[in-house]
Amino acid sequence: MPGTQLTVTLSGGEVADARTVVQALEGTFGAPDQLPADPEASIRTATFSADAAGQDTAGTGAAGSGGRLSAPVTVTVQGTPEAVRRASDTLAHAFTAHDEGAAAGDQEEERQLRLEP
User: Fold this and answer.
1) Three-class secondary structure of residue 106 per DSSP
2) Which helix or strand (DSSP H or E) is residue 97 part of?
3) For the stretch 6-45, what's the b/e string if a residue is b when 16 or more beta carbons lie within 10 angstroms of its beta carbon?
4) Residue range 21-25: average pLDDT?
5) Do the Cβ atoms of 25 and 104 come closer than 8 Å?
6) Which of 13, 14, 22, 56 has CA 20 to 30 A from 44's CA?
């Protein structure tokens, strides 16, 4: 769907860990609006266009390329059910991920994952 977005909220770890997670999603969603940068922030966010042209629609673009985390990171992905599924699949392939639950609305879904180093 044109104009749909995926919002990623990250907590835990350092700013470098948040960047690592966001960069892992780039293979599926393209570049985010900006990379997390504030080292003092306890919660970081990034927004992706869920209809990025030419991206991997199977959600496996970052498989095996997630990089290393220095600490556990809790990630909440929110958007269309398809975008949330693609993001969750991508993160599960790139990191050791534990599904901590989901909530579905009328047109959006939210899923929380805990990524381990």
Assistant:
1) coil
2) strand 96-104
3) bbbbbebbebebbbbbbbbbbbbbbebeeebeeeeeeebb
4) 96
5) no
6) 56
